[in-house]
Amino acid sequence: MVQGKAGYRFQNWAQTYSSCPEKYFQPSSVEDVRQILAMARQSSKRVKVVGGGHSPSDIACTDEFMISLDKMNRVLEVNKEERRVTVEAGIFLCDLNEELTKHGLALSNLGAVAEVAAAGVIGTGTHNTGIDHGILPTQVVSLSLMTAVGEVLHCSDSVNQDIFQAARLHLGSLGVILTLTYQCQPAFRLHERQFPSTLTEVLDNLDFHMKKSEYFRFLWFPHTENVRVIYQDRTDKPIQSTSSWFWSYAVGYHLLQFLLWVSTFLPSLVPWLNSLFFKLLFSGREERVGRSDTIFTYECLFQQHVQDWSIPIDKTKEALLQLKAWLESTPAVVAHFPVEVRFTRGDDILLSPCFQRDSTYMNIIMYRPYGKDVPRQQYWAAYETIMKRVGGRPHWAKAHNCTRKDFEEMYPSFKKFCSIREKLDPAGMFLNSYLEKVLIS
Question: Cβ contacts of residue 406 below 8 Å, gap of 6+?
Answer without folding.
Answer: 388
